[in-house]
Design brief:
Aspartate Aminotransferase, domain 1; alpha/beta; 12 helices; single chain
């Protein structure tokens, strides 16, 4: 394991900072109780960690009210809460072909079972959507725009600010999926004109799996689609209206929240912009190295402006899954192959017919040596099998 070169950070960041492991271990040994359920000291201390995490994330997203930062299982769970809680039968939604299945599938279900109409905006040859294309699709019943802030396949950061301004001017709710950007770059809901942001903890926020959430701007309401215990006002028959209880159900994943808090503290201490800059230096080195290898195809990586550290490529005439298997088995390099849960991206770039791409996702613990070894391995595979 110590020799593993891990380049699948677009799926889950690994390893985590040592501070995350130690904080989670200490927290669960000493605070492994339910927060907000009783008045004894340990319960209050655990609740304080939860509330401090809400405050830290709210500040990161530049929100105003930490109570409107709600926790969920992950971004898929959060996006389902938002999409099903915002849309009504007869509504119209605009989204993109860049989306992950965490958006595509809920919208498909809404169109199939709830008479919701969905339009999909394609991206250009460089991997970016055009805000003007959204303007052309707006209708009188357009209720929601959903945007993948950065593609998990192409790494391109989308023009959220311009799309958000368009939504704001037309009274349309703007929801972004920040699964790939939260912890990588600034996600400022004021600057981006965002109403609802969905995030996950296990990627670039450097927390564990099983924790994510939403930040919901004031005056944006998401209706109940679930109900259950909240630990407060137990005699009330209906689920509570106020945030955060409005969108939180049952006992929170408190150890997940604690790990997320530790990950955020580590990121903020190191500097998110500094980490991103270092990752992009390595990404550029990797992209340039790929371009010097014969029979390599890269996708939307010619210009790395407005990108995160994600590169997708293929070896001509060779299945992506085979490249990934050889990288793992022969070189101890972990990456992601296939459709990456984003089938419409692959349909548009034509890789659906060849079962997807090889995706390399860089993280804060990758080094120049990792990149050099990965490039040498890919070169050997390309020369041996093509």
């Amino acid at each position: 394991m110590s020799d593993l070169i891990y380049l699948d950070n677009g799926a889950t960041s690994f390893p985590k900072p040592e501070e995350v492991y130690s904080y989670m271990d200490d927290f669960y040994r000493n605070n492994g109780v339910s927060p907000g359920r009783s008045g004894y000291d340990l319960c209050i201390e655990t609740g304080n960690v939860v509330e401090n995490t809400r405050k830290t994330l709210t500040e990161y997203f530049n929100g105003k009210d930490p109570n409107r930062l709600v926790f969920s299982l992950n971004s898929t769970d959060a996006l389902n809460l938002a999409i099903s809680g915002i849309l009504e039968p007869g509504d119209h939604v605009i989204t993109t072909t860049l989306e992950h299945n965490s958006v595509l599938r809920p919208l498909y279900h809404m169109s199939l079972y709830n008479n919701v109409e969905v339009d999909y905006i394609p991206f250009d040859k460089n991997g970016f959507v055009n805000p003007d294309d959204f303007a052309a699709k707006i209708k009188s019943n357009t209720r929601l725009v959903v945007l993948n802030h950065a593609s998990n396949v192409l790494g391109t950061i989308q023009p959220a600010k311009e799309i958000g301004k368009l939504c704001k001017d037309n009274g349309i709710i703007f929801l972004i999926d920040a699964s790939q950007t939260a912890g990588k770059i600034s996600v400022d809901i004021e600057e981006l004109n965002v109403d609802v942001v969905a995030f996950t903890g296990h990627k670039s926020l450097l927390g564990p799996v099983g924790i994510g959430g939403l930040y919901v701007r004031e005056n944006i309401e998401i209706k109940h689609t679930r109900a259950g215990g909240t630990g407060v006002k137990s005699a009330v028959k209906h689920h509570l209206e106020e945030y955060p209880y409005r969108l939180e159900y049952g006992t929170l994943n408190t150890i997940g929240v604690a790990g997320l808090y530790a990950g955020m503290k580590w990121l903020l201490g190191k500097g998110i912009d500094k980490i991103h800059k270092e990752e992009m230096i390595l990404t550029e080195k990797f992209r340039d190295g790929l371009n010097r290898i014969d029979n390599i195809i890269t996708y939307c990586g010619d210009d790395l402006t407005d990108h995160i550290g994600v590169i997708s490529f293929n070896i001509k005439g060779f299945e992506a899954v085979n490249t990934g298997t050889i990288l793992d088995g022969d070189y101890n390099i972990a990456c992601r192959t296939g459709l990456q849960c984003a089938p419409l991206v692959h349909e548009q770039i034509g890789t659906d017919k060849i079962h997807g791409t090889v995706r390399m996702g860089l993280g804060p613990f990758n080094t120049e040596e990792h990149i050099e070894k990965a490039l040498a391995a890919i070169k050997e595979i390309a020369e041996t099998y093509v």
